[in-house]
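Course assignment 3, question 2. Fill in each field.
Student: A.L.
Task: Predict the tertiary structure for the chain below.
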Amino acid sequence: MHVPDGFIDAPVSVATGVVAAGAVAVSLRGARRELDERTAPLAGLVAAFIFAVQMLNFPVAAGTSGHLLGGALAAILVGPYTGVLCVSVVLLMQGVLFADGGLTALGVNITDMALVTTVVAYGLFRAIVKLAPRRRRTVTVASFVAALISVPAAAVAFTAIYALGGTADVAIGKVFAAMVGVHVLIGIGEAAITALTVGAVVAVRPDLVYGARGVTARPLEIRSSPLAPATPGAVARTEGPAAEPAAVTSDTSETSEALETSEPTGTPAAAAAPRRSARRVWWAGLAAALLCAGVVSFYASASPDGLEKVAHDKGIDQKAEDHAAKDSPLADYGVKDITDARLSGGLAGVIGVGATLAVGSGVFVVVRRRRATAESERG
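Answer field:
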């Protein structure tokens, strides 16, 4: 759904640029509350992973493909404010390095693909997890539904922007029907990718999933057992004149899960929770991103995505302009002067993952340090 230059007139492009700049500024402040020493590097990885998976266009209808937008995935994994920043970094890198999404339309793309998808998805996600049982499965199901709805919501937002500043004389009703119709189908793919990714991380490290905090926690249960031996410090329950020994019978894995996924409470149990390293998750995520961008992307659908198809069929692209970075050595996700298509595309994908990871990690580390500085000054 990357909007190219020329689709939207200058006044509306400037207005959406102001909205996008405001959203990024607010998100930079909000991300300080979401990031800590472990999640700051992971946020950069999330941006790189979204970049990689966006290269994997999947077929949704005859002659039409779709790709991940990523707002729902980013918001659930690292938080809504950080999620806006993740997708914004991806869009910036795509526009500057790969001539994907117009530079004058960057405000449109950030507003539509970063802000709208993140706000809609995370709001719906939180509503579902509050109403549903507190289980790991709830997080996965809520991720699926939130991602599914976020894509047609972005299509509606694009239609509204086009109604205000579209450069071609096209009936808005036709644009609305076509955009929403095809992006409902794309939303199914988005939902599957998001749910699978979130579910995989929740299964191994629920403490690293922002949206799972406080959702999968289970309180420790203390039950009396006449068979448990009396030990120093054991909890006892008194009935009448005699005291009956008690034993903590909650399962070890459930105890670990509760400690890792519950939000900090200030209690001794929470304070005693071990701080596990996220290094393995980071390396696994990086390997997955490189595999997707460097290898799997070669097998992605070559059909135009939803917006490109609708723009061609409905005449929205009548006044499309050449991209300002069309002469970039990485334009169209290939490395200039490398004739082998597989090698060119794979190398471009790997470069894109590395560049997005570097820029994203740099942004989030700076945000984290500013939070640490502010906390030390208050302390």
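Instructor remarks: The radius of gyration is 24 Å. The first helix runs from residue 10 to 34.
Grade: pending
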